[in-house]
Write a structure and sequence with these properties.
This protein has 341 residues and is of the alpha+beta class. The chain contains seven helices and 17 strands. The radius of gyration is 23 Å and the shape is globular.
């Protein structure tokens, strides 16, 4: 009996030690930029953790993570509660109908990520964030979503229909050239949910959408308090991407998609880009390492980038990708295959 007990302890101790890695300071939460969850210990099972959360405007995210020794398995869970408990829940709603999902915990430059895989292919990445940055999990997520809209979705240099330069800054909610010089804009957030809308005055907001060649701004009159009563004015503004060799650096960027090599991306914000943009974004990661493209359109585009220096060995270029870039390539590929509505 003693030998069996010792054997069980030897097996369970490393499992528990690894599972403990998922828990951190109580002020932390995990998010893909849209959905967030908080992890806690299962009340009964030592090898399982429970995730609960939702989005900025609703809850409903619930799942279990079971330690398998070298990774975690997404499982259904009842949180150890009986069926007649008022708080009883069962199932998993992080990926709904998906099966055989595994998760790996990875730390890059001091920040932790949970990478979820389906049959060996990256499904999504959840970033660990600190709620105290913006005073609470939901407020923290609110601030995060605003920053992603500013620095990923909007930031860049564009040309309007009259040939004028319009610049959305990376580090500030400011735009130059849309209405004269630098002006601050507000990201509309009806019902505390940030939208891809920028407001320059009290009665006008612009819905911003990505197109293959730039941005389309659709003007709305917002005199009514209820955002469902906002009305299109019929005015639109088309902004075209500045050619790579014409960029002036006014936005604080070195290239159109330089962010894809700097930090692990959030899948939520990638959904706002077109398929063509996502393909270009993914290939810019390779281009930064001198990858020589065989497709004419990629070769033509990157040959206009002053920083691009093609080399003879594509294998060597690929081998130089950083850990961040490798994850982003997988995540962008996944988003390229995701239906857009």
């Amino acid at each position: 009996m003693m030998k069996k007990t010792i054997f069980l302890l030897l097996v369970l101790m490393p499992l528990c030690a690894m599972a403990q890695q998922l828990l951190s300071d109580k002020n932390m939460y995990w998010t893909n930029g849209d959905v967030f969850f908080v992890l806690s210990k299962h009340e009964i099972r030592a090898d399982m953790y429970v995730g609960m959360g939702g989005t900025l405007n609703e809850g409903g995210t619930f799942f279990g993570l079971q330690n398998t020794g070298n990774s975690y398995k997404l499982v259904e869970t009842n949180y150890g509660l009986s069926n007649d408990s008022e708080t009883y829940m069962y199932g998993q709603t992080l990926f709904f109908d998906k099966k055989n999902i595994t998760a790996n915990l990875k730390t890059i430059k001091g920040k932790r990520y949970l990478l979820f895989y389906e049959k060996g292919k990256l499904l999504d990445v959840y970033h660990e964030e600190n709620e105290t940055t913006n005073y609470g999990k939901q407020n923290g997520l609110y601030g995060l979503e605003e920053s992603l809209i500013r620095k990923i979705f909007l930031a860049g240099e564009y040309i309007d229909s009259k040939g004028g330069l319009v610049t959305f800054a990376v580090n500030e909610q400011k735009v130059h050239g849309l209405r004269g010089g630098w002006k601050e804009y507000v990201i509309d957030a009806p019902r505390n949910f940030p939208l891809n809308n920028i407001r320059l005055d009290e009665t006008t907001t612009y819905e911003v959408n990505h197109e293959d060649d730039g941005l389309m701004l659709t003007e709305y009159y917002t005199g009514e308090e209820d955002f469902e009563e906002w009305k299109q004015t019929g005015n639109t503004i088309k902004l075209y991407h500045v050619l790579p060799n014409r960029m002036q650096g006014t936005a604080g960027k070195t290239s159109r998609f330089d962010f894809a090599s700097k930090e692990v991306l959030y899948s939520s914000i990638l959904g706002g880009f077109t398929k063509k943009e996502l393909r270009l974004m993914r290939n810019e990661i390779y281009a930064r390492h001198g990858y020589r493209f065989s497709s004419p359109d990629m070769n033509e585009y990157f040959s206009q980038c002053p920083w691009y220096s093609p080399r003879g060995d594509n294998n060597a270029a690929t081998a130089e990708l950083t850990e961040v870039e490798k994850i982003n390539v997988q995540l962008i590929k996944k988003m390229e295959k995701t239906p857009q509505y």
